[in-house]
Amino acid sequence: MWRYVAGAAAALLMVAAGLVLFNARAKPDPLLPPQPILRPQAAVAEAQDALPDTVAEAPARTREQKRFDRYDKDRDGRVTREEYLVQRRKAFAKLDKNGDGRLSFDEWADKTITKFTTADADKSGAMSRQEFATTAPKRKAKARVNCPPPAAAPRDEDS
Q1: Rg (Cα) of the chain, in Å, rounded?
Q2: Is residue 19 part of a domain?
Q3: How far is CA 122 from CA 26, 64, 126, in A?
Q4: Closest CA to 73 of 61, 89, 86
Q5: End position of a domain, from candidates 42, 71, 95
Q6: I need a surface site. Which of 1, 112, 134, 154 has the fewest CB within 10 A?
Q7: Domain-ending residue, one of 72, 95, 118
Q8: Which CA distances in Å does 20 have to 23, 24, 69?
Q9: CA–CA gap between residue 140 and residue 76 (Å, rounded)
Q10: Residue 132 CB neighbour total at 10 angstroms
């Protein structure tokens, strides 16, 4: 019996030590690039150059407002249960091929079955590595952001 108690105590001590070690790893704040030292006149001139001539206007409707309006079909300012389920009903109707109001396994898995039969080029009932590789989802290319190189900080010649 004492072995179980000692084992449980050891396990609790190990969990406590893990929590202490896990929480002790604080990430330091990222270092910011050094800011140039500017004279007061230069600072004012630079601040005026950085301000845009016009202020951008906010869009008339937010994304959430647009989404709400897509669901609110009768435009009464409320989304009823029926309005909310319209999208699900359309998706169900696309899957229900024979229109009986019930989904069989074959109807539900139709897209997957089609994908398998298309990939199984030799019609062997099994996919080889090359055939399986054709079933990989097509990934959208991420847009690359080209940031300009950092501008060299002006040197203060007085120091």
Answers
A1: 32
A2: no
A3: 56, 48, 9
A4: 86
A5: 95
A6: 1
A7: 95
A8: 5, 6, 49
A9: 38
A10: 13
Are 102 and 96 in contact by the 8 Å Cβ rule? The answer is: yes
Residue 18 included in any domain: no
Q: How many domains does the chain have?
A: 2
Residue 154 falls within a domain, yes or no? no
156: pLDDT confidence band, cut at 50, 70 and 90? low
Kindly state whether residues 104 and 129 are assigned to the same domain. Answer: yes
Is residue 146 in a domain? Answer: no
Residue 14, both tokens: 């190990």
Comparison of pLDDT for 72 and 24, the residue scoring more:
72
Rounded CA-CA distance 110/95 in Å is: 8
Give the global pTM: 0.36
The stretch 2-6 carries a mean pLDDT of 88
- The answer to whether the beta carbons of residues 83 and 72 sit under 8 Å apart is yes
Half-sphere exposure of residue 22: CA atoms within 13 angstroms, side-chain side: 6
Residue numbers of the domain that contains 119: 97-134
With cut-offs at 50, 70 and 90, classify the pLDDT of residue 140: confident
